[in-house]
TrEMBL record:
Every VanZ-like domain range: 13-145
Repeat as UniProt keyword: no
InterPro entries cross-referenced by the UniProt entry: Teicoplanin_resist-assoc (IPR053150), VanZ-like (IPR006976)
Record-given protein name: VanZ family protein
Keyword annotations from UniProtKB, A to Z: Membrane, Transmembrane, Transmembrane helix
TM regions (residue ranges): 7-26, 75-93, 102-119, 125-144
Organism of provenance: Bhargavaea changchunensis
Presence of keyword Ion transport: no
One Pfam family matching this protein: VanZ
Length: 165
């Protein structure tokens, strides 16, 4: 790839990682539970039941019992938050070229993030966040694997090889 494009991708990745760290770890969400013991915090702030949070938000969205911005921001925010990771991971780690490889890498990353959020009380462990984040990363991977993106990559790589000779 041309140097300019590589620099732009590298800078965008660093900016993405900084934004991700701020959103996931530097917010004040955990302070709501600060008076609890660590075990009480885990029990009160965690969700281990798949689709519990998702179904609650969908139900409340349609019955109007919650400000509609809340479910939209939570559901789509979690979905879109890791979409770029589905593009960046295979770009930087070329061995991630199959959906299975991405799913394994993302599972490790997302579980680590969820655990760190609980341990630092900067969030909660929510299996639905994991599900939505994984779906977002898989969507990003789908974009990465499109013919148009792969064609652009091949053209840029071909251009780099021609420039070296």
């Amino acid at each position: 790839m041309k140097k300019g494009i590589k620099i732009v991708i590298n800078i965008s990745f660093v900016c993405y990682l900084v934004a991700l760290a701020v959103l996931l770890f530097l917010s004040s969400r955990g302070f709501l539970w600060s008076g609890l013991t660590w075990m009480e915090y885990i029990r009160n702030s965690s969700n281990f039941v798949p689709f519990k949070t998702i179904s609650t938000y969908v139900t409340r969205f349609f019955d109007g019992s919650m400000n509609r911005d809340i479910p939209i921001k939570n559901l789509f925010g979690n979905l879109l938050l890791f979409l770029p990771m589905g593009i960046y991971l295979p770009y930087y780690i070329t061995k991630i070229n199959k959906i299975r490889d991405l799913a394994i890498a993302m599972s490790v990353i997302l579980i680590l993030i969820e655990v760190v959020q609980v341990v630092t009380r900067r969030g909660s462990f929510d299996i639905d966040d994991f599900i939505l984040n994984m779906l977002g990363a898989l969507m990003g991977f789908g974009i990465w694997k499109t013919k148009i993106i792969q064609k652009l990559l091949r053209q840029n790589l071909q251009g780099q090889v021609n420039e070296n000779f």
